[in-house]
Known about the structure:
Elements: E1 5-7, E2 11-13, E3 18-23, E4 33-39, E5 46-51, E6 58-60, E7 68-73, E8 78-83, E9 92-99, E10 121-126
Parallel strand pairs: 2-10
Antiparallel strand pairs: 1-3, 3-8, 4-5, 4-9, 5-6, 7-8, 9-10
Amino acid sequence: QVQLVESGGVLVQAGDSLGLSCAASEFTLDYYSIGWFRQAPGEEREGVSCISSTSGLTYYRDSVKGRFTISRDNATNTVYLQMNSLKPEDTAVYYCAAGPPWGCGGWYTGGADFGSWGQGTQVTVDS
């Protein structure tokens, strides 16, 4: 099964910035909507952000609006999540996944219709 590969997660201090990458080697990401999701211990997986393929529209959950930015680099077949002003509540394993090209439907509730999930990358924000 084709999987995406996340990278960039580390331990940071509250207020720091961090960039995550989502890459694919076996398919072209710009055809798909790509979502970033996270799951904290004992919590359900939740959508963090999504970028639509056809429209280029971006979506963010309220708790990260103004702090996180999702973007694509088609030349490198990579989707990024830039995270600024990190908070301890951002601590989680972050995943990316591919959704349908026509939109980001279902991203907010955890991406049940998304596929090619990666193994995740741990982000820990220390207070």
